[in-house]
Amino acid sequence: MSVISPTIQSRFAGLLGAGAVISDPTAVATYQIDDLTPTVVLRPDAVEQIPEIIKLAAAEKLAVVATGGRTKLNIGLPPAKYDVALDMSALNKIIAYDPGDLTLSVEAGIPLRQISRALAQHGQFLPLAVPFLERTTIGGTIASGVDGPLRQLYGTARDYLLGMEFVTGEGVAAKSGGRVVKNVTGYDIHKLMIGALGTLGVMTRLNFKTFPLPAATRGFVARFPTAAQACEMRNRIAGSPLSPLTLDILSPQVAGLFSAAAPPSKFEPEPLPPNVLSNSEWTVTTGYCGHDEVLTRYEAGLRQIAADCGTTAVTILAENLAPAWARKREFIPIALASSPATTIIKISVLPSRLKDVLATAHAAAEANSLPWASLARGVGIVYFALLPSDQNSDSFARVRKATTAIHQAAAKLEANSTIPWCPASWKKDLHIWGPEPRNVSQMQKLKNVFDPQNVLSPGRFVGGI
Amino acid sequence: MNSGLLRDLQGLLGDAAVLHRPEELLLYEYDGSVEIARPTCVVFPRTTAEVQRIVQLANQYQTPLIGRGAGTGLSGGALARNGGILTVFSRMNRILNVDVENQRATVQPGVVNSDLSAAVAHLGLHFAPDPSSQKACTIGGNVSENSGGPHTLAYGVTTNHTLALEVVLPDGELIRIGSAALDPVGYDLMGLFVGSEGTLALITEITVKLTRTPESVKTLLAIFETLDDATETVADITARGITPAACEMLDGWTLRAVEAYVHAGFPLDCAAVLLLEVDGVKESAERHAEDVAEVCRRHNAREVRVARDAQERDLLWKGRKNAFGAVGRLSSTYYVQDGVIPRTKLPATLRHINHIGEKYGFQIGNIFHAGDGNLHPLILFDARDPEQFRRVVAASDEIIKFCLEMGGSITGEHGVGMEKDRLMPLLFSEAELDLMRHVRDAFNPKGLLNPNKIFPSKKGCGEIHVQPLPMQGVAAI
Questions:
Q1: Is B187 within 8 Å of A99 when comparing Cβ atoms?
Q2: Do B183 and A443 touch (CB under 8 A)?
Q3: Which pLDDT value is given to residue A322?
Q4: CA torsion, ordered A31, A163, B426, B415, to nearest 10 deg
Q5: Structural element, H or E, at residue B381
Q6: ipTM, 2 decimals?
Q7: Closest chain B residue to A242 measured between Cα atoms?
Q8: Using CB atoms within 10 A of its CB, is residue B332 exposed (0-12), middle (13-18) or buried (19+)?
Q9: What pTM was computed for the model?
Q10: CA dist., res. A387 & res. A370, Å (int)
C-alpha cells in the first residue's frame, strides 16, 4: 500500500469536502485492483472537481485510477502504482436527453440501469447489453471496452458514442465530438478513450445516440451436433437477407453453466426455459424483432437455414426474450463464478474462421485437461473460458500451455487474442495483451500527449502503457 | 521550385508523373470548395514504396506534403495551402481483394467510391458510405474526411465501415493499423486516423466492410406546401423511432433548379419535398413505407409518391445527387455550409436560414440530409464582387453560429480543412485545440503533412481571415 501524507489528504479534503475523502482501510480495500489497494478513495460530487484532483495528484506524483461499479477493474495488467481510487459513482446525472432527437448526455458515473429506466419511458434504449449490467456504470463500460450480444445489429459503443468530456493526466478539461448524430469537427479523440482502461483521461460526460426499443422480439435457438454446423448456420444467416439483433454460438458446456442454480440467478431473476440448451450439443442463439409479418418471415427463414445445417432441435423463445439475452450477456460473470481460476481468452477473427479458432482452442484446452466453455459472437468474437478446478501451480502450468497454444493459433489465423480475465498472480506470465501487440510505439505517442506524467491508470494497458 | 527536389521526384516517378509547370498546376489549385491554393508540384505515385520515397524527399527538402484523391472535397482539405508536393492517388486505384464470405474488401486509396460498389454488386454487396460525389470521389478521400452521404442515416459514416489501414507516417515509417477482424488490440488508432483530414498520415491501403444490399427498397417522394410541414415531418419520423435508410430534403427553389436540369419529375409548385427510403426484408420495407407515408400525410403532405421500379428510384436519386451541379448552372459560385443540428430543431433552423438569406439579400437553397440534421444551405453569390464575398462569409457565419446555439456542430461530413479552421474556436477552447494539435504533432511533428489545416493559426486566432477570392466558377460535385 502506498502512503499519502496527511497534508495532501487534507488538501484533497479542501477540494472535495472531508466526507469525500475516504481512508478507512475496510472501505478502501473494496477498491483493490489485483493485489494493490489504494491509500485513499476520492468521491467527487461535481465534474468541475476532477481537473483539480488530477492536477494535485500530478503535482504529488500520485497514480489515479477512476472507478465506477468496480466490476471490471481486473481487466489489464496490475497498475504499476495505485495511490488514489477516483470513485465516479456520485457523478450520476442525466445532463440532457432529447428523445425527439434520440440523443443523450450523461455523467460518467451513472449506472447503465438508471439510463435504461429513463430511456424506456420514451420507448428508447442504449444497445449496451454488457456483462455485469446490474452494477456497471457507463464510464466503466466505455473504459473497459466490453461488448454484448446486441453488437450483431447495433455495433459497439464506437458506433453510437457521439462525444465526450474528459480530463487529461495534466488536469486539462477537454471535449471531443459533440451531441449531434453526425459530426466531423476535429479529431475523434473520444474513440481513443473506448477500451483504454482510463489511461488517457478521466471521462466525465458522455454523449450517445439512442435507439427505439425493438417492438416484438423473439429468440430462436437451434442445436447442432458439431461446432462446424453451428458456424455454418452463422454463415448462412450472414449471407441471407435477415439481419438479426443477436447471433451467438454457445458450446455444449454452456448448458451446464447457465443452468447451475446459484450463479445465474445472481445476474437475472428469470430462469432459462428448460431444455433449450443441451450439454452435448452446440447451440446457435439468435434474436430478431419486428411486426407479425416480419417475425413470421424470420422464423421461417431461420428454421429453413437451421434444417439445412442439420439441426437436431429448434426452440422459439416467445415474447419475453430477456432470460436468454441475459444469460448470453452475462456469460463472462457466470464463467468467472464457476471456477476459482477462470481464464478467459478473447479472440477476434474473421467470421469465416470462427470454426477454426473454436477447434484449435478446444483442442488446446483438452490437451491440457482443462474444463472449458465458449461463447462466439456471429461478428467474429470468441470468449473462450478455461475453467480449472483449482488455482495452483499445476493448473497455472496447464493454463499457460493452453493459452500459449491458443495465442499462436490465433496469430496464424490473423486473429487478435487477449486475456481480459485471469487470476491476478498469473497475469505477468500469460501475455494478457496478446503474444506480440502491434503499434505499441504509436500508442505510447498518444499516452505521452494525454498523460505525460503517467498519472492515469499507469501500467495497465497494452505494452505496459 | 527547388530543382533538386524536381529532379529527384522525376527520377523516382518519371517525368510524366510529376507536374510542375504553372499551367499544369492550375487544375490542382482548387477542390470542391471555394478555396484556392496552388501546389509547388503534383505527383502521381503508383506504389506504396513510391509514396514512402516521396515522404522521404519531402523530409529531405523540408517541403510540405499533401495527399489528394479526386479533389471533390468541400473544405479545402486536399489543397496545398502553403504550396508543397500534392500527392494524387488516382493511379493507386486497384481493388486488391474482395472477401465475399466475410463481407470485406481491401482497396488502394485511389479507388473511386462507386467503382467499389459496382464491382461487388453482382455479389449482393455494396460499400455503404455514398457521398453525392461518389462517382468521382475516392475511398482514400472518404477515409481522410470520414465522409457521409444520404444512406449514412441508417448505415453510418465512413468510420463505421473502415477496418484497417496501411499508412505512411510523415517520417516515412510504414505501419498497419486496425485489423480485418473486429476489435484490434490497443487504442482505437483507426478511430483517430479516419477523419483526420490527411494531417496524420498518407493512406496507401484500406480494408472496408461491405454491406449486404437489402432485399427490398422503397423510395418515397413526399410533397409539401410549406417548409414547416416538411421539417416537422422529419422531426416526427425521428421521434417515432422510425429510422429510414435515407431522409433527404429539397426546398422548392432547389427543386426547381434540379428539375430543370435532371427532369426527375419533381413538382415545380411546392415548398419542399422529402426523399425517403426504407429498406430491409420485403415485409419490413413495406410496413415501414406505410408508416413513413402515414407520418407525411399527418403533416399535410400534398402527395406521397412511391417509386414503382428501380428506374423511377434511380431518377429520384439522380435529382438529389446532381443537385449541386444543377445549382451550378444558375450561379457561377455558391458557398455550401455543412452545419448539424438536433433533429428537433429543424423547423426553427430552416426558418432562421431563410431569414438570414433575406437579411443579406442572398438566394439560399436548401438540400440536405434532414434525417440526421445535417444542413447544406447553398448561398448563391457572384465571386467577382469582393463585397458579395465578404457578405456571403458573414451570412454563412451567422448560420453556423445559429447551429451552434441549437447545440449543433460546424461540420457534419465535409470536414474543417482550410475553410472552417477559423470557426473552430466557436466550438473548442484553446486548451482543447492545443490538445488536438499535440495529437497531430505526435504523428506529424515537423508539420510537413497537410500543414495549416483544421486548426486556426495561433496568431490570427479569433479574427476573420481574408480568404483568397475564387477565380472562377466552382462546381462542387
A1: no
A2: no
A3: 60
A4: 140
A5: strand B377-381
A6: 0.96
A7: B281
A8: middle
A9: 0.96
A10: 6
